[in-house]
Design a protein that fits this description.
This protein has 22 helices and 14 strands. It has 470 residues and is α/β, with parallel strands linked by helices. Its cofactor is adenosylcob(III)alamin.
């Protein structure tokens, strides 16, 4: 590969593909922390000049993490579809960007080449894109998945209803769930991050969510975001596991930090599929990712955090997931310092995941010590809506009282749906209308929590005080 250029009277040379990709990345605090960011804006421009002229074939053949020592690299390259890659194999990264943006290139054409793409190719092209390019490319791509609802259809926007509670109190969880349902949220799933991350607590929460769902015959899926080994054990105890959750990253070492291997993920998927709980499909893996996870695990191999994030999408693609969620600002300002960096990362993650054929959602979020605020989140949420994001989060008041971070609220989801004429998943929208909770467009018709509680006879879904709760 040609990894040097003369620019403005200065010779810029990069030792390998990883160094080139890192230097070409937009500025972010994580790459500075890792000591791999471009030294200045001129070096960044030089790296992008080289990257634009780099043949896609060269990127395919130059791995950033060694094949011999990393199972993620092996799995990605061993699954590479040379036939799908053939139509663009003659292009450079810059030419491929122009192809992606061309009016003649539609979502079907992009989907056809997707199995021939590697994460490094996708990360590379994103580094040549302005924010509007990332939005324009992503908006062309629809990735549709099914379990009990159909996610990703044109004209829809899903919401993960996130009723977390600092003590896993059943009444508190049920009340937050009701609040979300009355505002048309929950079609992507009802998912709890447990405060008591143990088997007994997981089983209790799974039964609680399943009882709520069955009480009202809600077409949705539930998930308790615990480790896959806990979920497998819950299945062995007869618990009603719908979606199988796991955090993943882009290298073998970073995944080891999460306590997983690719074979363990396959075992977890098989265990959940054995229950046959899906009604219209069997895609049931739910993955969460985030820029900076590999660096925080000291397993980034000198690769920039955005490229490592896209490698995590390469892992997700192996398991045909129902949902993938980039929790974009959750790890903190050490990795994404401010609103500008969070917005850019969210658009990158969404676009890159879709290019790899994934059903991408984004948790539009930040921590309270980041240089960001809810105005930044409003901006990112709106841009992602335009870009066709599959789903976002619905958190009561946008303030997660268990995880202590700021996300998007049920009201925020309604804003985007109204602004962009989006509806919930069709099965969920039909349910809401049949229950008298929503009109034909999916907009809520219940105006107060008390009216909703009466309409749904909430007391028959809530557990009795203290029942089964430590």
């Amino acid at each position: 590969m040609q990894l040097a250029i003369d620019l403005g009277g200065t010779r810029y040379r990069f030792r390998d593909l990883a160094a080139l990709l890192a230097a070409a990345s937009p500025l972010r605090s994580g790459d500075v922390l890792a000591g791999i960011a471009a030294r200045d804006a001129t070096e960044r421009v030089a790296a992008r000049h080289i990257l634009a002229d780099l043949p896609l074939r060269d990127v395919l053949n130059a791995v950033t993490v060694p094949y011999e020592t990393d199972e993620v690299t092996r799995a990605i390259l061993d699954a590479h579809d040379a036939q799908a890659f053939a139509p663009i194999a003659h292009m450079t990264i810059g030419q491929w960007r122009e192809w992606l943006l061309a009016d003649e290139t539609d979502g079907a054409a992009i989907a056809a080449v997707s199995p021939g793409l590697t994460p490094e190719m996708v990360a590379a092209v994103s580094k040549l894109c302005r924010n509007q390019d990332l939005i324009a490319i992503a908006a062309k791509i629809r990735v549709v998945t099914r379990f009990r609802t159909t996610m990703g259809l044109p004209g829809t926007l899903g919401v993960r209803l996130q009723p977390n509670h600092p003590t896993d109190d059943p009444a508190g969880i049920a009340a937050s769930t009701l609040d979300g349902l009355l505002m048309g949220c929950g079609d992507a799933m009802i998912g709890i991050n447990p405060a008591r991350d143990n088997l007994a607590g997981t089983v209790e929460l799974l039964h609680l969510l399943d009882a709520l769902r069955r009480s009202y015959d809600i077409p949705t899926q539930s998930c308790v975001l615990t480790h896959v080994t806990t979920s497998i054990a819950a299945i062995e105890r007869g618990a009603p596991v719908d979606l199988m959750f796991q955090s993943i990253a882009g290298s073998q070492g970073a995944n080891a930090g999460f306590g997983v291997t690719l074979s363990l993920l396959a075992e977890a998927r098989d265990a959940a599929q054995s229950l046959n709980r899906g009604t219209i499909g069997d895609q049931l893996m739910y993955f969460e990712t985030g820029q900076g996870s590999a660096l925080s695990a000291e397993a980034h191999h000198g690769v920039d955090q955005q490229t490592m994030e896209v490698r995590a999408y390469g892992v997700a693609r192996l398991f045909d997931p129902f949902l993938v969620n980039s929790v974009v600002g959750f790890i903190g300002p050490e990795y994404l310092y401010d609103g500008k960096q969070i917005i850019r990362a969210g658009l990158e993650d969404h676009c890159c995941g879709k290019l790899l054929g994934l059903p991408m959602g984004v948790d539009v979020c930040y921590t309270n010590h980041a240089q960001a605020d809810q105005d930044d989140m409003d901006t990112l949420l709106t841009l992602l809506g335009v870009a066709g994001v599959n789903f976002v989060m619905g958190v009561p008041g946008s303030d997660d009282v268990m995880l202590n971070y700021q996300s998007t609220s049920f009201h925020d989801a309604l804003y985007v749906r109204h602004l962009l004429n989006r509806t919930p998943a069709p099965e969920f929208a039909a349910w809401g209308q049949a229950m008298g909770l929503a009109d034909a467009s999916g907009a809520p018709t219940i105006r107060t929590l008390e009216d909703g509680a009466r309409r749904l006879a909430l007391d028959r879904a809530l557990p009795s005080p203290g029942a089964g709760h430590a």
